[in-house]
């Protein structure tokens, strides 16, 4: 079994298009070496790193946080289950907050979300005299409700 993969082999094995792999490399998420013919070669350990990136992206974790997490891993070995448990536990609060925000949004889809826009008929009931404006810009009730939901 070869110790290195071409970009095509890595793309085939990971399910990530070569353009995505080049993007990950430009962003410092993965590394390759160049052959004398200037072709990329990836250590087999990069396959697991790509899987970690994909899992983080699927969870909505920003690439900056993924990059910071990957930077804590040794460069020349395949990430282990223990590595993944450590990385993913650091993302748990972000994921819980995102879930709480989505649940609050879902629960308010048929009513005003408290943005202060007064453009929905129900706003006069939920936000009389534009009270939400005093709480700042944006969907203030949604932000409040997602914080409450994440602590329940």
Any descriptors?
7 helices; Multidrug-efflux Transporter Regulator, Chain: A, Domain 2; 3-stranded antiparallel sheet; elongated; 152 residues
Largest sheet: 3 strands, antiparallel
Instruction: Tell me the number of strands.
Output: 3
Distance linking N and C termini: 51 Å
Low-pLDDT regions: none
What does this structure look like?
By secondary structure, this protein is mainly alpha-helical. The protein contains seven helices and three strands. The chain folds into two domains: 1-79, Multidrug-efflux Transporter Regulator, Chain: A, Domain 2 (Orthogonal Bundle); 92-152, no CATH class. A three-stranded antiparallel sheet has the order 1-3-2. Strand 2 (33-34) and strand 3 form a beta hairpin. Helix 3 (45-58) runs antiparallel to helix 4.
Brief description of this entry?
The protein has helices at residues 7-14, 18-26, 45-58, 63-70, 81-108, 123-126, 140-150; strands at 4-5, 33-34, 40-43.
Topology:
Layout: E1 4-5, H1 7-14, H2 18-26, E2 33-34, E3 40-43, H3 45-58, H4 63-70, H5 81-108, H6 123-126, H7 140-150
Antiparallel strand pairs: 1-3, 2-3
Helix pairs in contact: 3-4, 5-7
């Amino acid at each position: 079994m070869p110790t290195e993969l071409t970009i095509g082999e890595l793309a085939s094995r990971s399910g990530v298009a070569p353009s995505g792999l080049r993007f990950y490399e430009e962003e410092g998420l993965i590394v390759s070496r160049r052959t004398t013919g200037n072709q990329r070669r990836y250590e087999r350990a990069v396959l697991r790193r790509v899987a970690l990136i994909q899992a983080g992206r699927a969870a909505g974790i920003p690439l900056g946080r993924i990059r910071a997490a990957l930077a804590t891993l040794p460069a020349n070995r395949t990430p282990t289950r223990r590595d993944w448990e450590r990385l993913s536990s650091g993302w748990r609060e972000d994921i819980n907050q995102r879930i709480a925000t989505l649940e609050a949004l879902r629960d308010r889809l048929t009513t005003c979300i408290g943005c202060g826009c007064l453009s929905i008929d129900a706003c006069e009931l939920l936000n009389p005299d534009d009270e939400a404006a005093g709480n700042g810009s944006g969907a203030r009730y949604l932000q409040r409700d997602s914080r409450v939901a994440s602590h329940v």
